[in-house]
Amino acid sequence: MILSRIKQYLQQRGEASLADLATRFDTTPEAMRGMLETWIRKGRVQRRLASAACGSSCSQCDPAATEIYTWVAEGGADPVARPLPLPGRCK
């Protein structure tokens, strides 16, 4: 099932952008959001933006590239928020 493959992918990587997940699983970002929502409701995935301004100020980045999903470790500990590389035009 694709949900278990998403779980495995995020566990291995720790986090991934919506664009990366949609490409990896050959689906649209909208469909991937729906699948990720299952894990979010279960408290296993957290959604965040790469930075507060990216994706909203210049509008040049694909919003899916700045939407980050992080796997939450067993026991419900919050994931460590580490900076991700932003799309090339973002500073």
Counted by DSSP, the helix tally is 4
- Strand segment count: 3
Overall 3D form:
globular
- What is the total domain count? 1
Description:
- InterPro entries: Tscrpt_reg_HTH_FeoC (IPR015102), WH-like_DNA-bd_sf (IPR036388), WH_DNA-bd_sf (IPR036390).
- Residues 2-70 form the Transcriptional regulator HTH-type FeoC domain.
- There is one protein chain.
- With 91 residues, the chain is an alpha+beta fold.
- The protein has one domain (2-71): Arc Repressor Mutant, subunit A (Orthogonal Bundle), CATH 1.10.10.
- It is 40% helix and 14% strand.
- The protein is built from four helices and three strands, in the order H-E-H-H-E-H-E.
- The chain has helices spanning 2-13, 18-24, 29-41, 63-66, and strands spanning 15-17, 45-49, 67-71.
- Strands 1-3-2 form a three-stranded antiparallel beta sheet.
- Helix 1 (2-13) packs across helix 3 and helix 2 (18-24) packs across helix 3 (29-41).
